[in-house]
Amino acid sequence: MNADTFRYTYMADFNEDFIKFHDNIEVLKKDEKELVEFHINLNRHIKELNQLFEAFRFNLLNLQSSYKLSASDELIRNKEFGFEVHDMVAINALTISYISSGTTLITAIQVFLRKGFEGFPESFKVSERLKEEWIKQAHADNFHYRLLYELRNYSQHGYFPVSVNGSKYGFDLTQIMSTPYYTHNKRCKEEIESILAKYQEFSEYPRLSFTSVIIEYNLFVIRMYVDFLKEVRGAWRESAKRVKTLADQLKSNVFVTSDKENNLFVFSLDDGSSFNHIIELDDMIGMFNDRFIHARKIREYEESKSRIFYRRLRHHLIKRQAFYS
Prior knowledge:
The chain is of the alpha+beta class and about 325 residues long. It has one domain (about 45-235, about 290-325). It contains 9 helices and 9 strands. The strands form 3 sheets. Strands 1-9-8-7 form a 4-stranded antiparallel β-sheet, with helices on one face. It has a 3-stranded antiparallel β-sheet with strand order 4-5-6. The protein has a two-stranded antiparallel sheet with strand order 2-3.
């Protein structure tokens, strides 16, 4: 996982200078321990969420590098896999991994909002939006997220969510709803039945566009992650600032590496372990800002791509309508 900003270290891991330095470090007081423990836990949560975001991003790029996502929903391979695999199996395997990584990220944010601020110092000002109800309401209002969350559960019961019809691929609602031995979420079931009732007069087998649903799901997950970082960065800055202030007060606990590139805040939490805890003090706020800026750039890029896609989709539908008229 490698999600810690701090390091555990045994005495043997450092040189003689560090061993001499270690003999003079001060023991932290109770309130000081609570402060650094909170910062360590907050940083761990944020790093873990960043790893989940990068996994979500990887799964999208893996899907896009394997198949062309187009307005017509035609199934076109971008590459050969180097082994024999049917397209229906491949597109479902890639899609299930992608959907699962998105719901895992959103669920992890929910868990953080539920438990991450336990023991949060009362003097910290936490954004009012940083409540579990915020994210619950957000995805309750987003049909595409609810649909793919349902299809994630559907796939975990052994069913492929993506159907292939000739050269087209999409979410076949009739097939999904008629699958035996699976009980759909009540709200999602009612919404799908409503869509079926509306579109069955136009098509015997109505399906939802694969590319459109993937795009909307992608935008929702990215926007929620960026919004979360935006709301939590105040708490991160305050926590980092307090740890640096504490380190300034405890000069005997700050070890400067021989290359002068790192200032290490060294302490023990008396947790029964035989190692020290280390926080790298340099550019603590910058590390968070880099993640936030990176995620925001990805959001802007994906929003731009979605606008291009919908322009192409409108053009495709106009051409098809003209062909059949």
